[in-house]
């Protein structure tokens, strides 16, 4: 004869199966944009960010692919919407100074700004005319092992992080609530 404790555990496990089964079918609702396909024009670069437009364009496409709500197309004629991105500004500012010389920087804050537009070719109108977005990253010029300063190398290594952050901001803006 089963004990009271084993009966209770059996009943609890059956009851929890009913609750967990309902949760397994639940899907988070994500608002669908008013278009199904998008063409991402290669980004243009009016900033002083070195070679950032190629990395940014690829990372924007990757962000849309990861999300899965839009299908990327390779020709503007096939698209319900066309995304245009122009890098407008790139700034470096000192964030950390060297301990032995306060005139020399040891770390920098990098800011990359872009202006985006989203065009609907079927209606011949802009869904987003000109929206400014930015992303930040920090970099340190000093190598902690050797103590050598190499800002150009640290800036080069920070650029993919910076463009990835900006690409995610752009994708969030396009895929956000309509």
Question: Would you give an account of this structure?
Answer:
This protein is α/β, with parallel strands linked by helices and 178 residues long. The chain has a single domain, classed as Lipoprotein like domain (Double Stranded RNA Binding Domain). Helices cover 35% and strands 32% of the residues. The chain is built from 3 helices and 6 strands, in the order H-E-E-H-E-E-E-E-H. Strands 1, 2, 3, 4, 5 and 6 form a 6-stranded mixed sheet that branches. Strand 5 and strand 6 form a beta hairpin. Helix 2 runs parallel beside helix 3. The termini are far apart. The model has no long low-confidence stretch (mean pLDDT 84).
Question: Briefly, what is this?
Answer:
This protein is of the alpha/beta class and 178 residues long.
What features would you highlight for this structure?
35% helix, 178 residues, flat, alpha/beta, 6-stranded mixed sheet
Q: Beta-strand percentage?
A: 25-35%
Average of per-residue pLDDT values: 84
Oligomer: single chain
Number of strands: 6
The CATH architecture comes to: 2-Layer Sandwich
SSE order, one letter for each helix or strand: HEEHEEEEH
Spatial extent as radius of gyration: 25 Å
Distance between the termini: 61 Å
Helix content: 25-40%
* CATH topology-level fold name: Double Stranded RNA Binding Domain
Structural class: alpha/beta
- Give the low-pLDDT segments: none
Assigned CATH superfamily: Lipoprotein like domain
Shape: flat
The CATH class is Alpha Beta
Compute the number of helices. Answer: 3
Quickly count the domains.
1
- Largest sheet: number of strands, sense, barrel closure: 6 strands, mixed
């Amino acid at each position: 004869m089963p004990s009271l404790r084993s009966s209770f555990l059996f009943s609890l496990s059956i009851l929890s199966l009913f609750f967990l089964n309902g949760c397994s079918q639940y899907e988070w609702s994500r608002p669908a944009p008013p278009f199904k396909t998008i063409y991402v024009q290669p980004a243009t670069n009016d900033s002083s960010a070195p070679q950032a437009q190629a990395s940014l364009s690829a990372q924007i496409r990757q962000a849309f692919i990861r999300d899965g709500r839009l299908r990327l197309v390779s020709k503007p004629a096939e698209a319900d919407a066309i995304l245009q991105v122009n890098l407008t500004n790139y700034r470096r500012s000192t964030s950390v100074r060297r301990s032995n010389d306060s005139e020399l920087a040891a770390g920098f804050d990098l800011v990359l700004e872009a202006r985006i537009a989203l065009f609907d070719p079927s209606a011949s109108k802009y869904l987003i005319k000109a929206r400014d977005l930015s992303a930040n990253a920090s970099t340190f010029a000093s190598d902690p092992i050797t103590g050598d300063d190499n800002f150009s190398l640290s800036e080069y290594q920070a650029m993919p992080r910076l463009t990835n952050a900006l690409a995610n901001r752009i994708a969030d803006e396009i895929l956000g609530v309509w």
